[in-house]
Amino acid sequence: MSNASSWSVLAAGQSNRIILAVDFPAAGRKEAGFTDLAAKMASAWTGYELRQTVLPGVRLTERPPGEYYTEHWINGTDWADYEVVAVIGYCAGSIYAAEVAQRLTRWQTAEPQVVLFDPQLIDTRVLALEMRKMIGLAGPIFTPDEAQQARERADQIAQQHAGAMYDAAIAILGLYREMATTAFARIGLDNSRLDEVTRLFESYMTYLSAASQVDPIEVWKRSIAITSTDYARMENQGETVVLEAAKVVGNRFSLGVDHADLMRSDSAVQILFEQTDF
Questions:
Q1: Which among 17, 75, 250, 278 has the fewest CB atoms less than 10 Å away?
Q2: What gap in Å lies between CA 239 and CA 220, rounded to an integer?
């Protein structure tokens, strides 16, 4: 049986062969997700059940170790009853996908095929970039000076706590809560909604911080990576977390598609048809 607290079924299959999708699913996000990808793959995946990770209810202050998420997803399912043909990771989920695939060799003789969409490693700079993204999404709610000051504070936090992921994440969360409180007051939204979005951001910071403790490199060497124009831009800008990932992936396909549309793009689907065994 599958553990419903660890995996959600996105598409029912016709056999015991399954595809696992590792992501941080969030309602309303602009980036395409695995539901979009499954719709594009259509009949090619009809014979497989597609399952996506369900996040554990862990708080940032608990500072979970890297294996916490993997154990949450692995425990509680009778994997001997299934054949996992592939594990697919999106962005930071690519790190966990490697660990999940490796763990599954306890129950099956062949390691699942690993496919990565815009794989990257995680450091404190990534936390600052995520905070910058949130500031950008707020648009005109903040003045240009307020937005710039917040971006600079995020960068300072990343630098000050370089190598101390959870310390950085806790400080970034504090900055997010401060900015969100101001934004909600200005647009007149209820505080219950503020608590909800802050908790979601905290969950994401925890997910990223724990991922920084997982070493995916050996599995990534055997993987297929599908990357976007945003990924290429980060390479050109010298972002270490992308450069180091790009060096080790086994077989990379760079597409002229932005990060948000990668998993709904026809070109990514074509790569899956041509380069995978499932």
A1: 75
A2: 18
The C-alpha atoms of residue 183 and residue 145 are separated, in whole angstroms, by: 14
Whether the per-residue pLDDT at 194 is higher than 90: the answer is: yes
Tens digit of each residue's pLDDT (9 = 90 or more) over 198-238: 999 999 999 999 999 999 999 999 999 999 999 999 999 99
Q: Which two tokens stand for residue 43?
A: 């009949």
Rounded CA-CA distance 143/140 in Å is 6
DSSP string, 71-114: HHHHTTS-GGG-EEEEEEEETTHHHHHHHHHHHGGGT-SSPPEE
Range of the domain at 185: 124-211
CATH code of the domain in which 255 resides: 3.40.50.1820
Same domain, 219 and 106: yes
The tokens for 84 are 């996992």
215: closest CA among 123, 91, 70, 98? 98
Is the per-residue pLDDT at 1 higher than 60?
no
Report if residue 1 sits inside a domain. Answer: no
In a domain, 29, yes or no: yes
**pLDDT value for 43:** 85
The total domain count for the chain is 2
Q: Which of 147, 41, 141 is nearest to 88 (CA)?
A: 41
- Predicted local distance difference test score (pLDDT) of residue 14: 85
**Assigned domain for 2 exists:** no
At 27, the pLDDT band (50, 70, 90 cuts) reads confident
Q: For residues 35 and 46, what is the distance between their CA atoms, to the nearest angstrom? A: 13
